[in-house]
Amino acid sequence: MLEQLSSLIELQRHDSAVDDLQTKVNAFDPRIAKKTAELDSLRTSLKSSKDSLTANTLKKKQLEGQVDEQQKLVQKHNAELNSLKSNDAYKAMLSEIQAAKKAVTDIEDQILVVMEAIEADDRKFKEAEKKFKSDESVLKADVQRLESEKAAALEVVSARKAERDAFAKTLPAASVTQYETVRKRGGEAIVPMINNSCGGCHLALTQNKINEVKKAKAAVYCESCSRIIYFPAPTVAAPAAPAPSAAS
Ligand SMILES: [Zn+2]
Known about the structure:
- By secondary structure, the protein is mainly alpha-helical.
- The protein has five helices and four strands; from the N terminus they run H-H-H-H-E-E-H-E-E.
- The two termini are 47 Å apart.
- 13% of the residues are buried.
- Residues 198, 200-201, 203, 222, 224-225, 227 line the site of zinc ion.
């Protein structure tokens, strides 16, 4: 049994090494996501400034068309004035002309506002474009570098995992299965007894369990966390007892 326990401890060392390597692989994901989000935000701000510029340019064109219409109306009414016979009709036509002229002034004011917006949009677009040009390639290169570093780290995991599996194959299948079942619950599956307690969950063990662990004739399971408990061999680092303090 002792030999089997030390083999399982060795297997656990393999598993912990694989887990550590996998943690390193996983750490790439948020970094890649952050760079990708930065790229997306660059694209979004470039697009939104371009969209706003396009919309305002179109609006300006529409307003200019309206000015044109009103001016044509003024010309048309001016030409019609001479043909009018009655004073009232003449007056009515004059007020129509006034209204059209007023509309022209109002629309021209709106055009000025839109032109200011276009100027601001254009500035924003150029800034976004400049930032995009300078940052896009850097960010893309960063993402590419992180992706290839992650791929390399994954290869290391696979190699280490293969090493672990090869070692596991040399152990009795039943005890590996038992170990894996406990390990699946998370954390270490096999822990040392520390100060007569479970090294995993720190539950104080009964005297009977302590004896069983020390005898190491069969796997002893913690009643609380189901981990396999072993009695550390002298070579396994156990917390050192504090040195007796010098007499004062
Ligand atoms: Zn426990």
